[in-house]
């Protein structure tokens, strides 16, 4: 059996140990499952550092004596307290956006916490940042990014600690109970039995290169967009590759990438997988010859040209067989055509034009039955030609 690409995370590793909580009612279920949607917890935790960096930078800008790093610890403490308090009493409000529009606030826990982080950071702006145009400057964005990254790298606030806080905040604002488990049990045993089946138990992706964490209920969803999952080529060549490499593969090296026939410029409008070009060039040589001869003898009737194609193929098949580009084949055909002697050219008229198109239809139809892969392009061309015939008749 194939190994599952997803693994459970040991619960005590991520601070998600279910805990016993005192219930108000004596004798009520006192054991709560405290598992949360791991992805949302992670996303909230990730929003803390940029928020903290913003508060620190805006609080110290223009102050030559205070560096953002020197206030970071204090502001972090204050920010956590602020978020805890605000999230406990949070009720969805409508939010007035910068452009004056009032919108119904999102009730997604991530959006709510991000809004609160923003709200906190804006209270830390010092006088200088409020009056100097600092808030609109590009430099500010760079400073914030750099400082957040610096705190991330030097482990100022570990992701585990941030996730613990994020989890509490999530529970406070997830009023619809969509992103955390609220099941209660009468005994530790019952709770212990529930946890391994809880849809919020955290899992990790085992695909090489992927570090995603999510709840068990999100496994299928993650599997269907994990960029590191190996899947068969979308264009159905024999390759299997990571989802993230698919687009590039399909427009570059994939043998099934559609390309124009190398004889496009002389009239062959077939589009085929690049791996079939060789085959097409040899099996459809007669079509390419017909197009080239048509270019040389513009006045010739189709019957005459078709005869000429037959003659060329009978007499010079080996000379023509391996030529794969327009220039060389045109050159060769000119040469061999001259060797065959002058061509008796009938004057072109509508009947001849129609005959030419009929000939193409026959070639193409013969083609279509042999190679299903090209059928679509050929059908299209046949229809175009049939239209031309109708037009020529009238
Ligand atoms: Zn649960
Ligand atoms: Zn993954
Ligand atoms: Zn492919
Ligand atoms: Zn072609």
Automatic annotation (TrEMBL):
A zinc finger (TRAF-type) spans 222-278. Keywords: Metal-binding, Zinc, Zinc-finger. InterPro entries: Znf_RING/FYVE/PHD, Znf_TRAF. Residues 222-278 form the TRAF-type domain. One of its GO terms (molecular function) is zinc ion binding. Pfam families: zf-TRAF. PANTHER family: F26K24.24 PROTEIN (PTHR10131:SF161), TNF RECEPTOR ASSOCIATED FACTOR (PTHR10131). This is TRAF-type domain-containing protein.
